[in-house]
Amino acid sequence: MQGGPENATTTDERHSSQVVFEVNGAAREVRLDNRTTLLDTLREHLGLTGAKKGCDHGQCGSCTVLLDGRRVKSCLVFAVTLDGRSVVTVEGLAGPDELSPLQAAFIAHDAFQCGYCTPGQLCSARGMLDEVARGWPSAVTGDLSGPAELTDAEIRERMAGNLCRCAAYPHIVAAVRETATR
Length: 182
Known about the structure:
This protein is an alpha+beta fold.
């Protein structure tokens, strides 16, 4: 008899994997259906609800996290690809008792309104600032022979993958610019 209760465990084991990875500096081990995304793993299996489910198609950026130091849309990454890798979510950007400089700048510049996109904006901004520090150009970088000048246009281009329905963009740009000059 196929599909009966006696086959449920076998089917689950055949279509799941044990994944060991680091989240916000802590080792985590979970058994997941092979189709589970990183976003769903964080929210439903690990209780980290900072990354938000927005469009579920990688278009809005509300689920942005850092994977091995690079920005990714967690709704597009299968968790089975995480074995041995490192993930940082918005919950891991700062220590337990203080905000990161980027988080403090977002507050100081009122770079959020409803706050739904803010975790993704923060992770994307952290990743973007690290990219600039590594000398990676963007589509609007004028001089490729030296470090990118972090103009408002440069920040907007690099943050273009993160949408804000409340239109807090000028405040987000100001917060990122302030953090970059510290």
